[in-house]
Amino acid sequence: MHRFGVISNPYTRHCRKYPSTNDELRSLIGSKGLFRVTQSTSEIASVLKEFKTHKVTCVGIVGGDGSINLVLAELLKLYPEESLPNILVLGGGTANVLAINLGLPSKPLKVMSDFLNVNSQSPDALKITTIPSLRINNRIGFLFANGMAAKFLQLFYKKKGSVRDAGMLLAKTALHAATPKFISQNNKSKASHVMDPSPMSISGTHEITAWSKKHPDVTTIFVSTLKNMALSIPVFLKLDGNHAEFFATSAQNKQLTSHLARIVLRRPVSHANVVQCLVIKVKINTVAGEPYTIDGELFDAPKEGVIIEVGPKFRFLSTTREARDPENKVHHRRNWLERFGAGRVRGRLGSLSRRVV
What we know:
The chain is α+β, with helices and mostly antiparallel strands.
């Protein structure tokens, strides 16, 4: 059985929307584990030191991707990589990219309840997923993005919208790419600047460095150790558990729309204006002050550039369907829509994208 402690950020999106969340979690956990609420980032270190004193083997985190990264960074100060405790992502943030990649709902009470049930009855049934992190200018994260992606987030945060709003904004951005002349004539879309390329130079593998010299203006760059981005968009199809995957494109307008369509349809993007490969370390030089994002948190690029390299590995716990249902009934109960509908719809979209794009 895992000895666990939970650290909660009360300012996360879920906790602000449901103020009783932390009280309910405290009641649910009771004497089974430690539960602490931090009022500021400065309290994280002291809470984790307390967990270490109590020989906690699993740290649960209530918060978004940014909160999780802060906790992981503090854990690295307390433990060598081989002795790091397991991590339980309870969710509660805005995008919850890490939770999406682990197949977990962003509902802290639901995840905690499932964990407690399995941990008390059959802890060996808990699934362990090992994911390498990224060190990005000495910060810890899992997904780096700049260019279009960072500008998109800037616009989204200004609107302070929901996930649905993010989908609408993405649709408007794609519309601008497909019909730039129409948008420029009407000039009503704030999304119009998102697609503008930025001057960058990239050094990494020979393939990346050579591509960068031919494509000095880059629309966007992604570096990730996770398979999916926000909104469950699959971009990274080559990950092997030891490297990060690098994706960059200089495509614009309709060509960029074509790339986005292929990504959403889980198809590889192969074009002269795209480079995609596995990496250990890359350096990106761009205009100082240009935005970039680490798991949804925005930063400004320094004049020295951004250095990204594969960092320590973390072990994440999750409850599988089989673990929640010992008789495995859920596993055999197939969803007819998934079996007969999703494949056909995806096929139709693929056919349509080939005709239009």
